[in-house]
Design goal:
Keywords: Phosphoprotein
Structural class: alpha/beta
Shape: globular
Number of domains: 1
InterPro entries: Bact_response_regulator (IPR050595), CheY-like_superfamily (IPR011006), Sig_transdc_resp-reg_receiver (IPR001789)
GO biological process, one term: phosphorelay signal transduction system
Protein name: Response regulator receiver domain-containing protein
CATH class: Alpha Beta
Radius of gyration: 13 Å
């Protein structure tokens, strides 16, 4: 059975490219264009992973991560954002419950490799719950 990733992204073109990358990796992708839709999908779909933009209409990615983390301590949450990592670091790893951060500024081909790396790290971690990590992946090789 394919693992499910909830991808919340308001930029339709970027969301399309990310979806293609994830589907080529063998994932089933649930795409949401805003925080409210992503929350509804999270509740209905019970994804294995969450990949969230930070700046979205309605509920922000960080607020969404906080809601997800309150509901499920185990699902890994990754942020894929154009925001500067150092300006959002404390919030995403604090109340946003992040397990990792990826920059939108990096290329799509490297995105595939980076997502695989974060997922592999989560699978090898021996934690009772996620949201305690501090992974930042620099995918500019």
């Amino acid at each position: 059975m394919k693992q499910k990733i909830l991808h919340a992204e308001d930029d339709r073109m970027f969301a399309y490219f990310v979806r293609r990358v994830l589907e080529k990796q063998g994932f089933s992708v649930c795409s949401a264009s805003d925080g409210e839709q992503a929350w509804s999908m999270f509740l209905a779909e019970e994804p294995d992973y969450c990949l969230l933009d930070i700046v979205m209409p309605g509920i922000s990615g960080i607020d969404l991560g906080e809601k997800i983390r309150a509901r499920n301590r185990l699902v890994p949450i990754f942020y894929l954002s154009g925001e500067d990592f150092f300006s959002v670091q404390s919030e995403i790893y604090g109340r946003g419950g992040a397990d990792g951060f990826l920059s939108k500024a990096d290329s799509i081909p490297n995105l595939s490799k980076s997502i695989k790396g974060l997922i592999k790290q989560c699978k090898t971690d021996d934690k009772q719950s996620y949201g305690q990590g501090s992974r930042q992946v620099d995918i500019r090789y």
